[in-house]
């Protein structure tokens, strides 16, 4: 039985999941990676870090390029194979960078992704059809 996220994550916005799947498709055969943000317990944003290196064997994020004050809840990345189980390297990242992690796999459709907690255990995240207001880029809480 899959565990449900304990960190107050209610789900992922459908549009955010579709964005993740499209980025995964367009990056293929290379991996893509990014960070996840949430609003009101719903994953609603993917942060792409400048200088991220991607290849067919992996993706390396340069966390020094992440702007100061950006709070994230986990990671997302693609596997260019049909296997979305986390590797040993993935598990090290999971333990260091948040509580919710998503891996997509080829062919990058709505059935080819899985979410994990920081221990690499599968968790269930609902896909929620929700609209968010436009982001306020000058939000003092964020900076």
Outline the structure in words.
The chain is an alpha/beta fold and 143 residues long. It has a single domain, classed as Cytidine Deaminase, domain 2, CATH 3.40.140.10. It has two helices and eleven strands. Strands 1-10-9-8-7-3-4-2-11 form a nine-stranded mixed β-sheet, with helices on one face. Strand 3 and strand 4 form a beta hairpin. The longest helix has 14 residues, at 14-27.
CATH class: Alpha Beta
The third-level CATH topology is Cytidine Deaminase, domain 2
**In which order are the strands of the major sheet placed?**
1-10-9-8-7-3-4-2-11
Portion in beta strands: 25-35%
Shape: globular
Helix % is 10-25%
Distance between the termini: 40 Å
CATH superfamily: Cytidine Deaminase, domain 2
The succession of helices and strands, N to C, reads: EEHEEEEEHEEEE
Radius of gyration: 14 Å
Q: Could you outline the blueprint of secondary structure elements for this entry?
A:
Layout: E1 3-4, E2 11-13, H1 14-27, E3 33-39, E4 42-47, E5 53-54, E6 59-60, E7 74-79, H2 88-96, E8 100-105, E9 113-116, E10 122-124, E11 126-128
Parallel strand pairs: 1-10, 2-4, 2-11, 7-8
Antiparallel strand pairs: 3-4, 3-7, 5-6, 8-9, 9-10
Characteristics:
nine-stranded mixed beta sheet, globular, disordered N terminus, alpha/beta, 143 residues, Cytidine Deaminase, domain 2, two-stranded antiparallel sheet
């Amino acid at each position: 039985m899959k565990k449900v996220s304990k960190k107050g994550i209610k789900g992922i916005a459908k549009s955010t999941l579709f964005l993740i799947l499209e980025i995964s498709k367009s990056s293929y055969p290379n991996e893509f990676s990014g960070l996840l943000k949430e609003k009101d317990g719903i994953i609603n944003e993917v942060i792409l870090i400048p200088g991220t290196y991607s290849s067919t064997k992996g993706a390396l994020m340069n966390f020094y390029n992440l702007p100061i004050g950006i709070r994230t809840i986990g990671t997302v990345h693609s596997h260019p194979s049909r296997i979305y189980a986390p590797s040993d390297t993935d598990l090290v990242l999971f333990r260091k960078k948040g509580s919710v992690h998503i891996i997509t796999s080829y062919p990058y459709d709505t059935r080819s992704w899985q979410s994990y907690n920081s221990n690499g255990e599968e968790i269930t995240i609902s896909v929620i059809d929700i609209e968010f207001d436009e982001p306020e880029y000058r939000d003092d809480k964020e900076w």
